[in-house]
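Thread amino acids onto this structure.
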């Protein structure tokens, strides 16, 4: 009989249960809305304006969740978190371009930086907190 040591996965390697991926997706959607709200702060910040700014990036975010199967490791930074971030920005910019909206190089850079901090930052924070909790005695 062959016995092996039990496999203990890091938090980002565990199979996702419904709660974690729903929380991660909710955080992602809220952070994209915050990004859009920050961009519109010099304009009238109403629901229609916010959604008109956010929809391309929300579409990119949801496509990224599906394509990269982010639900499997919803708080993983690499590779799924990075792929999600870049997909969100690329699809969002493509849709803005198709809709005749602005895609100035400075806007692309700001979008990459802010959404990178938002989409990767909350994942990194969750992983750090989980690892710290796992190291705590008793």
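Threaded sequence (138 positions):
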């Amino acid at each position: 009989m062959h016995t092996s040591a039990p496999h203990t996965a890091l938090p980002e390697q565990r199979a996702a249960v419904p709660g974690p991926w729903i929380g991660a997706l909710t955080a992602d959607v809220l952070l994209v809305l915050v990004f859009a709200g920050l961009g519109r702060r010099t304009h009238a910040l109403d629901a229609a304006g916010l959604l008109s700014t956010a929809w391309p990036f929300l579409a990119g975010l949801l496509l990224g969740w599906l394509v990269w199967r982010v639900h499997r490791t919803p708080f993983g930074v690499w590779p799924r978190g990075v792929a999600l971030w870049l997909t969100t920005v690329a699809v969002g910019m493509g849709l803005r371009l198709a809709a005749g909206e602005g895609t100035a190089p400075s806007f692309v850079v700001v979008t990459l930086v802010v959404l990178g901090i938002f989409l990767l930052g909350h994942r990194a924070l969750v992983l750090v907190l989980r690892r710290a909790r796992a190291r705590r005695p008793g």
